[in-house]
Amino acid sequence: MAEPLIEARGLVAGYAGRRGLAARRSASAPVLHGIDVAVGRGEVVGIVGESGSGKTTLGRALLRLIAPLAGAIRFDGVDITGFDEAALRPLRRRMQMIFQDPMLSLNPRRRIGRALTDPLLLHRRAANRRVAERMVTALLERVGLPTAVLQCYPHELSGGQRQRVGIARSIVLEPEFVLADEIVSGLDASTQAQVLKLLGELKRSMSLSIAFISHDLSVVRAVCDRVYVMAQGVIVEEGASDALFQAPRHAYTRALIDAIPLPVPDPNWLSQA
Ligand SMILES: Nc1ncnc2c1ncn2[C@@H]1O[C@H](COP(=O)(O)OP(=O)(O)OP(=O)(O)O)[C@@H](O)[C@H]1O
Ligand SMILES: [Mg+2]
Hints:
- This protein is an alpha/beta fold.
- It has a domain at 101-174.
- It contains 12 helices and 10 strands.
- A 6-stranded mixed sheet has the order 6-7-8-3-9-10, sandwiched between helices. Strands 2-1-4-5 form a 4-stranded antiparallel sheet.
- Helix 5 crosses helix 6 (129-142).
- The two termini are 30 Å apart.
- The model has no long low-confidence stretch (mean pLDDT 90).
- The protein binds adenosine-5'-triphosphate and magnesium ion.
- Magnesium ion binds next to helix 2.
């Protein structure tokens, strides 16, 4: 791989106050125990592992939403491990996140048009609202939504449309890196395929780097170039998607694959969707 766009080296991270049961068990134990991962430019990298293995924590640490306890995070060749919020601010535009449930990240009382134009104005990517609206109209076409959704409130859209809005919002500032955390888990199979196909198109047209977190291995296999397998806060296996699924080396990976309720579908299902 060429110089990665984003990488973690020896990353140790966790939460100041662990909550619930975990808090009682281990007051300040880190969640991630020395993680090495990298995402190249234009690469889609999967992060898989059972619930609680630390996937979301890793994603949040990569975006520097939580501060590492040890190790380093580099973005575009710059060590951002110790950056404070002010130093991170210019980078925020370049690294974005698509949420699992766009309903939770979209303001229910704000029309989609505002949700998409506000970031452009806030980050001074558009001189005024009229310019921002023109840019957003072009963006909607790109994500396959009719311009009518600009006037809609989030609850007036279908789940698939809402996730397209979530994707549109994550790319409106033309980032280089996008973290996608379980972005299709709430959708039915055919809507999942459409959303993933869109993600693939954007990857190609914008040469986006994507970290794709999912517990659904058939989805990961279909969209990811490379995959990291996580268990209990460490990476247990890493490899090119096809190789890893065809010949998993680690028993944990094999168990994850065996746990898929249906036989692994045709890995090309997405390109036929
Ligand atoms: N905000 C938080 N505060 C304290 N502990 C947390 C917080 N978020 C997660 N944890 C703990 O960190 C560990 C890893 O959680 P994380 O959400 O990263 O796992 P995950 O792999 O994303 O799981 P899932 O597949 O269920 O989303 C868990 O033990 C969890 O309880
Ligand atoms: Mg998670």
